[in-house]
UniProtKB/TrEMBL annotation:
This is SSD domain-containing protein. Residues 1-19 form the signal peptide. It is found in: Membrane. It comes from the Eukaryota. It comes from Leptosia nina. PROSITE patterns: SSD. Belongs to the patched family. GO terms for molecular function: cholesterol binding. PANTHER family: NPC INTRACELLULAR CHOLESTEROL TRANSPORTER 1. The keyword Glycoprotein applies. Keywords: Disulfide bond, Glycoprotein, Lipid transport, Membrane, Signal, Transmembrane, Transmembrane helix, Transport. InterPro entries: HMGCR/SNAP/NPC1-like_SSD, NPC1_MLD, NPC1_N, SSD.
C-alpha cells in the first residue's frame, strides 16, 4: 500500500513538472495588436491575489469560457489555488469579450460554441500549454521579448469533430452557414480554413497574433480533448435546434404518391380508352352486320314511306322565322335605319372602352386568393420592388487557370472591367441633364429614412463589382477579393454601404451546384422602388425607359464583341405586349383580306365570265362583312358602357372568329334561296301568278323557315358557350368570352334583319338582270346562247357533288370503316389527355426577336436562384410570449413544426418542394441581437431613445435587457422584448454587430408603439427563396407547395397556441400561376356547363328530338376530346386560353352539325333517304360556308408571337379540320345508324 501511494506521488510530481507555459500575459502593443510574453514557467493560480469583486468576475469568465479548468474529472469545483492557468486575469477577460461576436454567430448551438471556445481556451490558458504549443519570438525596440507567432498542434479528430459540430449552424438573416463567416477567402470552407482564419491577422481584423493551426494524428504532442458532435448535448445546456444540427431533426420526408402508368401511359386514361375503344368498335361492327343482313333480307322489299311529322316546337320556330323573313325582306330600308340607330347609339361607347396590356390585369383574377394575398401584402408592406436586371454572358472568352484553380470566363479581367463600365453608365443615367431622374431617386434603399438626402451609395445593387474594393480592378488581387466574398458575401470586406452584400447566386450565372468559379455570366441587379399609385410611378417609369434605351444603345453600339447581353426592366413585358399587339395587326389583316376575297367570289354562283356581274354577290359580300364589323363595333361600344376592360389581343382575334360565323350564315341563306328558287314548283302553296313583292316575301319566308331555326340554335349555343367561358380565371380570357358573346348576339340580330334586307335588294337586282356593283346597268336576256333557260339558277360544282357523296358515305361498308377509324382515333386521344402540360409559358406572348424574350430565356437558363417568396403572418400572436415565439422561431427550444423550422425542412427537400433557401427569421436574429451584452443594443440615457450600436456619444450606453425565466434566460423577457424590439429594427448591421435588423427586416414587420414606448407586433413576413424555376410545371409546383407549407404552418400555430392566425405564401408570380392548380377541374366544369347548355338548347329547339340531339352531343364530345389529344400532339398547354378554345370547339361543332340535323328533322323524304336528303341540302354550305371561310386561319401560323400561332392557329385550324370531318363525315354516319335503328331499315 505504501508503494502504491509512493508511485502516485511520483506520477503527480512528474505531471506537475511537465505542465508548463510557453506564453503568458501581455508584453507589448504592436500597431494596436497586443502580443503576449514568451515564458517558460509553470502555470499559476489565476484567482490568487485578487479582490473579492475581481475574483468573482474572473471566476464567472472561467465558468463561461473554460469550465474544464474550474472542475475536476468528477465534476467537483476546485479550490481557487488549484485553478492553474497559463493566462492572467486580463487575458481571460479579453478572451471572454472577444468571444461575444462568436456568441452571436455560433451561440445558436451550444455544443459548437463550446468546441470553438475550448480550442481558444486551451491555446491561451491550458496549464499543459507547452505540450502542444510552440512560439516564435521577437524583440521590440525596448528589448522586450514577445510572442509574434504560435504553432498550435490540434489532434485530427478534434478539428474534424469541432468543425462538423459547427458546420450546420446557420445565420438566420441570410440562411447561409454561419461558419462561412469564419473562413475568410479560402476556396473551400473546411476545418483547416475555419480555424486558420481565426489565427490569420492579415485577413481577419479581429486577430492580433498569428496562430498556425497544425493538424496532427499523435496524441502525445497535440491538444487532443474530444470534441462532441452537435447532437451530443452537454449537461446543463440546451440542445441545438434542427436548423443548426440536422441530426436533431425529426425524421420523415414529403411523400409524393407515384402515378400509375402502363407503358408510360396514365392507367386511368389507358383503361378508359381501351374499354371505350373495344365497346364502341364492337357496337358499330354489330350495327353494320345487322344493316347488311336487313338489306339482304329486304332486297326486294319496298322501303317504308313514313311521313315525317314536324313537332309543334319546330313548327313554332319555323312560323316565327318565316314571319321575320317576310318582314325583313319587305322592309329593308326600315331595317337599315334601325341598324344605323343601334350602331349610332353604341358607337359612343367606343370612346369609353378600356384597353389594357398590363400583365397583372390580363392574367390575374381580381377575386382569386393569390390576388387577395397580393393586395394584402401591398397594403401592409408595400409592393415588392421592381427589377432592372442584366445578364452579361462571356461567349467570346475561355476559362483560365491560376495555379491549380480553374476559373470560368466570367472571372476574366476584361469581363469584370466590362461589367463595371456598364454599371457606371447606368449609375450616370440622367446626370447630364439638370433635373432628370437619376438612379438614387428611384432605387431601393433599405437604410434610407424618409426625408434623408438621396445618395447613390444608399442604393441596393448586386453584382461582382461589390466584391472588388473601390470597384477598381487590380490584376494581382481582384481574384482573391472575389473569392473571399463568394465564400462569405456578408463578411466585413464585402458588406456594402446599403447594409448588405451581393449574393453570389444573384451576381453570377452559368454554374452548377454552387461551383461559382465555373460561371460564364455576370449579372447586374438594380432593385427599383415600387409604388401603388400611378402618380408615384412616373419617375420610376421614366428612369426605366432611359435604362432600356441605354441598354439598346449598349447592345448595338458599344458593347465588347465577347459579350452577349440580355436585359429587362419591370416595364419591359407590358411595353412589349403593347408593341406586339400592334404588330400582330399585319398577319391578322392579311387573313382578313383573304377571307374577304374568298367570300366575295364564293357567295355568287358564277356560271361563266359573261354573266360574272349578274351572278356575283360582291355587294352582298362587302355589305355583309360591314354588317359583321358593325356588330363587333356595337359589342365594343356596349363593353365601353359597362366598363369591361378589353385587350388588344381580343380586338385582333375576335373579328376573325365572328366573321367566320357571320359569313357562314350568309352562305346558308344564299344557298337556301338558290334551292327554293330552283324548286318553286315543288311547293304546294306556291302560285305562279304571284306579284314580285309577294313572290319575294314567299321565297324569303320559306328561306327563313328552313334556315332560321338552325341559325338560332347554332348562334344561341355559341353565345351560351362563350357566356359560360366568361367564368374563366384569367381576366383576358373572361373579357374575350364576354366580347365574343355580345358580338354574336348583335350579329344574330343584324343577320335576321339587315342582312336579309341586303339579300332582298340583291334578289330584286338579280331578277331585274342588273349588274352587281353597277345596279344602273341592266341586261334584257341573261343568257344570249340559251334564252329559254336564262332565268334557271345555276347549280355550283360543290352542290353537284353532294348527291354522289351522300351515296358514297352512306354505303354500309364505308360507314363501318368511318366509324371504326373515328373511334380508334378518339381512343388514342383519350390516352393522351392526362399528359397535356398545364400552364402558359410567358415566352409565348413575345416574338423570338424581342429583347424580353431573350431575357426570359436567360432567366430560365442562367439564373441559379429562384424568386423570393414571403410567408406572411397576420396579426394575432403575442411575440413576447415564449409559447407564441416557439411556433415561429427556428433556434433552441423552438418547436419542430414552427414556421421557420417548416421552411427549413422544406428547403432540405427542394427537389420536391421547390424551396431553394430557408427563410430569414427576424425573431431569431432579434434573440441573438438582444443576447449580445455590450455589443449591439444602445440607448440614450437622457430620454431612453434608440442609439445605433456604433454611437460614441457619452449619453449613449449599452442596454441591460431583462431576461426571461424561460429556459434559464435564453431569451429577452416580455418587458425587454416590447421595449427593445424597435431598437433592433432601427439598428444597422456593423462590423461588430452584424445582427442589426434595419437593412434586412425594417420593412418586414409592422408594429405599434403604445404611450410608454412598448411595441406590439402585428403583421410580419418571413422571406425565403424558391429554387430556379424554368417551366410552367416548376412555377405551378412552387405555388402548390408554397400554399401547402403555409397551410401546415397555420395549422401548427393553431394547434400549439389556440390562436386562429393565418399564414399565407406570396410571391410575385403566384398571381399568374395559382389558377393552374385547379386548371383541370375548371376546364372540365366549364366544358360540362357548356355541353349541358348546348344539350338543353338543342333539345328544346328540336322539339325534344332525343335522337338527333344525342347524336349531335356525342359528336361534340368527340371533337372536344380529339382536340385535347391534338393539344398533346401539338404541344399546346392547358390554360384559360386553350380552355376557351375548347369551349369554342363546342360552338363550332354545333355549327357544323346543327344545319345537317335540322335538315334531317325537317326532311319530307322517306326515312331511308332523309340523311342523304339532308346532305344534299346543306352539305355544300358546310364546305363553302363554314370550312373554306376559315381557311385564312393558316396566315396566323406566321404570327409574330407564339401565343397567336399556338393557341389560335394550331387550335382553330385543328378545330376547323376536326369540325368538318366530324360534321360532314362522322355525323351523317352516326345519324344514319340511329335512323336505321329507329325505322328498322
Amino acid at each position: 500500500m505504501k508503494c502504491y501511494l509512493l508511485l502516485c506521488t511520483v506520477v503527480c510530481v512528474l505531471s506537475s513538472v511537465a505542465a508548463r507555459c510557453v506564453m503568458r500575459g501581455d508584453c507589448t502593443d504592436t500597431n494596436g495588436n497586443i502580443k503576449p510574453c514568451a515564458v517558460d514557467e509553470e502555470p499559476k493560480s489565476i484567482l490568487s491575489n485578487l479582490t473579492s469583486t475581481d475574483r468573482d468576475r474572473i471566476f464567472d469568465h472561467l465558468i463561461k469560457r473554460c469550465p474544464h479548468l474550474v472542475y475536476d474529472e468528477d465534476g467537483n469545483q476546485l479550490e481557487d489555488d488549484q485553478i492553474l492557468t497559463c493566462c492572467d486575469p486580463v487575458q481571460i477577460e479579453r478572451f471572454s469579450q472577444s468571444m461575444l461576436m462568436s456568441d452571436t454567430v455560433l451561440g445558436r448551438c451550444p455544443v459548437c460554441l463550446k468546441n470553438f471556445g475550448r480550442q481558444i481556451c486551451e491555446l491561451n490558458c491550458s496549464p499543459d500549454q507547452a505540450r502542444f504549443v510552440n512560439v516564435n519570438t521577437e524583440r521590440n525596440n525596448e528589448g522586450t521579448v514577445f510572442v509574434n507567432e504560435v504553432n498550435y498542434r490540434l489532434h485530427h479528430d478534434f478539428m474534424i469533430n469541432a468543425f462538423q459540430s459547427c458546420s450546420e449552424v446557420v445565420v438566420p438573416q441570410s440562411g447561409m452557414p454561419a461558419i462561412n463567416l469564419m473562413c475568410g477567402n479560402a476556396p473551400v470552407c473546411d476545418a483547416d480554413a475555419w480555424l486558420g482564419y481565426t489565427g490569420d491577422p492579415d485577413n481577419n481584423p479581429f486577430v492580433s497574433l498569428r496562430v498556425n493551426f497544425l493538424r496532427v494524428n499523435s496524441t502525445e504532442d497535440s491538444m487532443n480533448v474530444r470534441a462532441p458532435l452537435c447532437e451530443e448535448t452537454q449537461e446543463g445546456d440546451l440542445p441545438c435546434s434542427c436548423m443548426d444540427c440536422s441530426a436533431n431533426c425529426p425524421a420523415g420526408e414529403i411523400y409524393v404518391p407515384p402515378i400509375c402508368t402502363v407503358l408510360s401511359i396514365n392507367c386511368i386514361s389507358f383503361s378508359i380508352a381501351i374499354t371505350f375503344g373495344v365497346i364502341s368498335v364492337t357496337v358499330f361492327v354489330v350495327l353494320a352486320l345487322f344493316e347488311y343482313k336487313r338489306k339482304a333480307r329486304n332486297i326486294n322489299k319496298k322501303a317504308p314511306n313514313e311521313v315525317n311529322e314536324i313537332n309543334a316546337i319546330t313548327r313554332g320556330f319555323q312560323s316565327i322565322f318565316e314571319k321575320i323573313g317576310i318582314f325583313s325582306s319587305s322592309n329593308p330600308i326600315m331595317l337599315f335605319m334601325f341598324t344605323s340607330w343601334v350602331v349610332f347609339a353604341m358607337i359612343f361607347g367606343l370612346a369609353q372602352l378600356q384597353l389594357t396590356s398590363n400583365p397583372l390585369e390580363l392574367w390575374s383574377d381580381p377575386n382569386s386568393v393569390s390576388r387577395i394575398n397580393l393586395n394584402y401584402f401591398n397594403s401592409r408592406f408595400g409592393p415588392f420592388y421592381r427589377a432592372a436586371q442584366i445578364y452579361l454572358t462571356m461567349k467570346g472568352l475561355e476559362p483560365f487557370q491560376v495555379g491549380n484553380k480553374t476559373y470560368g470566363p466570367a472571372f476574366r479581367v476584361e469581363a469584370i472591367e466590362e461589367l463595371i463600365k456598364l454599371e457606371d453608365a447606368i449609375m450616370n443615367i440622367g446626370r447630364d441633364v439638370e433635373g432628370a431622374v437619376r438612379l438614387e431617386n428611384v432605387c431601393y434603399a433599405p437604410l434610407r429614412k424618409r426625408g434623408d438626402e438621396q445618395k447613390i451609395t444608399d442604393c441596393v445593387s448586386m453584382s461582382v463589382s461589390a466584391y472588388i474594393p473601390g470597384r477598381v480592378v487590380n490584376n494581382n488581387t481582384y481574384l482573391s477579393s472575389i473569392q473571399n466574398c463568394l465564400n462569405n458575401y456578408l463578411s466585413l470586406s464585402c458588406l456594402q454601404s446599403w447594409g448588405g452584400g451581393a449574393d453570389p447566386e444573384l451576381a453570377l450565372g452559368g454554374f452548377v451546384d454552387k461551383n461559382y468559379f465555373d460561371a460564364h455570366t455576370l449579372l447586374i441587379n438594380f432593385p427599383i422602388s415600387n409604388h401603388l399609385l400611378k402618380q408615384d410611378l412616373k419617375p420610376v417609369l421614366e428612369w426605366e425607359q432611359k435604362f432600356i434605351d441605354l441598354m439598346h444603345d449598349y447592345e448595338q453600339n458599344w458593347k465588347s464583341d465577347f459579350v452577349d447581353v440580355a436585359f429587362a426592366a419591370e416595364r419591359s413585358i407590358e411595353d412589349e405586349i403593347t408593341r406586339i399587339s400592334q404588330a400582330e395587326i399585319v398577319p391578322v389583316a392579311i387573313s382578313y383580306v383573304l377571307m374577304f376575297l374568298y367570300v366575295i367570289f364564293a357567295l355568287g354562283n358564277l356560271r361563266r365570265l359573261k354573266t360574272f356581274f349578274l351572278d356575283s354577290k360582291i355587294t352582298v359580300a362587302i355589305t355583309s362583312i360591314v354588317v359583321v364589323l358593325l356588330a363587333i363595333f356595337c359589342a365594343m361600344g356596349l363593353l365601353g358602357y359597362i366598363k369591361v376592360t378589353v385587350t388588344l389581343l381580343a380586338i385582333n382575334v375576335i373579328p376573325f372568329f365572328i366573321l367566320s360565323v357571320g359569313i357562314d350564315n350568309v352562305f346558308l341563306m344564299i344557298n337556301s334561296l338558290h334551292y327554293i328558287q330552283t324548286n318553286l314548283d315543288k311547293f304546294e302553296d306556291y302560285k305562279e301568278d304571284m306579284s314580285f313583292d309577294k313572290k319575294r316575301s314567299y321565297i324569303f319566308g320559306k328561306m327563313m323557315k328552313n334556315e332560321g331555326p338552325s341559325m338560332f340554335v347554332s348562334s344561341l349555343t355559341q353565345i351560351t358557350c362563350f357566356a359560360i367561358g366568361s367564368i374563366a380565371n384569367f381576366p383576358a380570357v373572361r373579357s374575350f368570352a364576354i366580347f365574343a358573346s355580345v358580338s354574336l348576339a348583335f350579329l344574330f340580330v343584324f343577320q335576321i334583319t339587315a342582312i336579309i334586307g341586303i339579300l332582298s335588294l340583291d334578289y330584286k337586282r338579280s331578277i331585274q338582270n342588273r349588274f352587281d356593283l353597277l345596279c344602273c346597268v341592266q341586261r334584257k336576256i341573261l343568257n344570249d346562247e340559251d334564252p329559254l333557260h336564262s332565268e334557271t339558277p345555276y347549280e355550283s360544282v360543290t352542290q353537284k357533288l353532294m348527291e354522289p357523296y351522300s351515296k358514297f358515305i352512306l354505303n354500309w361498308r364505308v360507314k363501318v370503316i368511318v366509324a371504326i377509324i373515328f373511334m380508334v382515333f378518339l381512343s388514342c386521344c383519350v390516352v393522351m389527355i392526362p399528359h397535356i402540360e398545364v400552364g402558359l409559358d410567358q415566352n409565348l406572348a413575345l416574338p423570338t426577336d424581342s429583347y424580353v424574350y431573350k431575357y426570359l430565356n436567360a432567366v430560365n437558363e442562367i439564373l441559379q436562384l429562384g424568386p423570393p417568396v414571403f410567408f406572411v403572418l397576420k396579426s394575432g400572436l403575442n411575440f413576447s410570449n415564449p409559447e407564441h415565439q416557439n411556433v415561429i422561431c427556428g433556434g433552441q427550444m423552438c418547436r419542430d413544426d414552427s414556421l421557420t423550422m417548416q421552411l427549413f425542412l422544406a428547403a432540405q427537400q427542394k427537389d420536391t418542394t421547390y424551396m431553394g433557401r430557408m427563410s430569414n427569421s427576424w425573431l431569431d436574429d432579434f434573440f441573438d441581437w438582444a443576447s449580445s451584452p455590450n455589443l449591439c443594443c444602445k440607448y440614450n440615457t437622457t430620454d431612453g431613445s434608440f442609439c445605433p450600436s456604433t454611437a460614441t456619444e457619452s449619453e449613449c450606453e449599452f442596454c441591460t435587457i431583462p431576461r426571461s425565466e424561460y429556459a434559464n434566460g435564453l431569451r429577452p423577457g416580455s418587458e425587454g422584448f416590447d421595449r427593445y424590439f424597435p431598437f433592433f429594427l432601427q439598428d444597422a448591421p456593423t462590423d461588430t454587430c452584424n445582427k442589426g435588423g434595419l437593412a434586412s427586416y425594417y420593412s418586414n414587420v409592422n408594429y405599434v408603439l403604445d404611450s410608454e414606448g412598448r411595441a406590439t407586433v402585428h403583421d410580419t413576413n418571413f422571406m425565403a427563396y424558391h429554387t430556379s424555376l424554368k417551366t410552367s410545371h416548376d412555377y405551378i409546383s412552387a405555388v402548390k407547395y408554397g400554399y401547402e407549407i403555409s397551410e401546415n404552418i397555420t395549422h401548427a400555430i393553431k394547434k400549439h397556441t389556440g390562436q386562429d392566425v393565418e399564414v399565407f405564401a406570396y410571391s410575385v408570380f403566384y398571381v399568374f400561376y395559382s389558377q393552374y392548380l385547379t386548371a383541370w377541374g375548371d376546364t372540365f366544369v366549364s366544358l360540362g356547363y357548356c355541353l349541358l347548355g348546348a344539350f338543353v338548347i338543342n333539345l328544346l329547339a328540336t322539339g325534344f328530338n332525343f335522337m338527333t340531339t344525342i347524336a349531335m352531343m356525342f359528336t361534340v364530345v368527340m371533337v372536344v376530346l380529339d382536340m385535347m389529344g391534338i393539344m398533346y400532339m401539338w404541344n399546346i398547354q392547358l390554360n384559360a386560353v386553350s380552355c376557351t378554345n375548347l369551349i369554342v370547339a363546342i360552338g363550332i361543332t354545333v355549327e357544323f352539325c346543327s344545319h345537317l340535323a335540322y335538315a334531317y328533322n325537317t326532311s319530307s323524304r322517306p326515312p331511308s333517304e332523309r340523311v342523304a336528303d339532308a346532305i344534299v341540302k346543306v352539305g355544300a354550305t358546310i364546305i363553302t360556308g363554314i370550312t373554306f371561310t376559315n381557311i385564312p386561319i393558316v396566315v396566323l401560323a406566321f404570327s409574330y408571337t407564339e401565343i397567336i400561332e399556338v393557341f389560335f392557329f394550331r387550335m382553330l385550324f385543328s378545330l376547323v379540320i376536326l369540325g368538318f370531318l366530324h360534321g360532314f363525315v362522322f355525323f351523317p354516319v352516326l345519324l344514319s345508324y340511329l335512323n336505321n335503328l329507329k325505322y328498322k331499315i
